[in-house]
Amino acid sequence: MAAHALYRRAIPAAARITRWHAPDGWVHRRFDWPAADGARQRGAMLFQVGRGDVFEKYLESFAHWRACGWSITSFDWRGQAGSGRLTANPHCGHIDTFDTYVDDLAAFASAWRGERVGRHVMVGHSMGGHLVLRALAEGRVTADAAVLVAPMLGLKSPVGPRFGERAARLLAGFGSRSRPAWRGNERPFTRASRQALLTSDRARYEDELWWLEANPAHRTGPPSWAWVLEAFRSTRTLNASPALATLDVPVQLLVADGDALVDPEAALAVAARLKRATLVRFGPEARHELLRETDAIRDRALAEIDRFLAEVPVPA
Asked: Where is the Serine aminopeptidase S33 domain (predicted)?
């Protein structure tokens, strides 16, 4: 894996960063890295990041999959990283409704599938995992397989999702819902450092800081109250959807039992309902960003994903 570390702080020469226009004209930042020359061509992978993420954080993992023969594509979600902002505050991750995210993903994925032949797999981290599964369950996108890494299928709340949503709705009502829900960190009311919530690997955490210092405009910051309310609503609606039981797509879920950002119990409950689920669990040694953890944890995650994707058949 050492060779792939070369890409942790450099855009690969063979990769392209372009712009994609959503049907309503919104401009998104897009990343494409074709499979390595000489590698056995496995197909196309659409990787979707989490809330506030930039795709540069995952270049090391992209390099691994590219060497395995996957062509990698990603885009920044609307309102964060390099895809503009929806409020005057450049450090607030706002969205009106998660339906907008799903609309963007559906339009992008439709065009992406037409650009590539062979297998089409979708990988989503955290919020990206939630939105990939939701779009699949709603029939908005199609894929030969999906991988959900630490998926946001429930928010971590000290009072549980029901009372957490009620409290958020009450607090949101004291001002504009587009204002930041809290000042910093990845979640409110915690003494844990941001790094401690995300990864136990200091060097990989510093890679993210390096990218944000190199591109300050890509820094997103805390979510808006609207985002928080939508996250509660969207996860609640998806988790109750009868479509999960009939979804005929192989889905792998990588869940960290000690995840302090999203609710692992919610992910386990969803996995139990999915028709074709493969569950991989990590213990308290793992944080939220499994693909940016220490080598032992990250290598296991990649190996599990590779084994799962190796079973995806070539479309007839």
From this structure: 41-295
Give CA 100 to chain center in angstroms: 16
Under CATH, to which class is 2-310 assigned?
Answer: alpha beta
Q: Could you identify the residue written with the tokens 């869940």? A: 255
Question: Whole-angstrom Cα distance, residue 270 to residue 272?
Answer: 5
Q: Report CA torsion sign: 133, 137, 140, 146.
A: positive
Q: Are 192 and 235 in contact (CB under 8 A)?
A: no
Token pair for 312: 């995806």
The overall longest dimension of the chain from CA atoms, in Å, is 58
Please report, for the chain, the start and end positions of each structural domain, with discontinuous segments joined by +: 2-310
Backbone angles phi, psi at 240, to 5 degrees: -95, -5
List own/partner pairs for 172-178 with CB under 8 A and 24 or more apart: 172/225, 172/226, 172/228, 172/229, 175/225, 176/225, 177/224, 177/225, 177/226, 177/229, 178/86, 178/87, 178/89, 178/92, 178/94, 178/224, 178/225, 178/226
Q: Which tens digit of pLDDT belongs to each residue from 195-231?
A: 999 999 999 999 999 999 999 999 999 999 999 999 9
For β-strands 16-21 and 27-33, DSSP reports them as antiparallel
Burial of 7: CB neighbours in 10 Å, binned 0-12, 13-18, 19+ = buried
Strand partners, 193: none
pLDDT per position as a tens digit, 163-196? 788 878 888 888 899 999 988 756 665 667 899 9
CA distance 148 to 250: 11
Distance, CA of 120 to CA of 143 (rounded, Å) = 5
- The mean pLDDT value of the chain amounts to 93
C-alpha to C-alpha distance for 198 and 22, rounded to whole angstroms: 30
∠ CA 17-75-97, nearest 5°, is: 145
pLDDT over threshold 90, residue 285 = yes
Structure tokens at 53: 């993420």
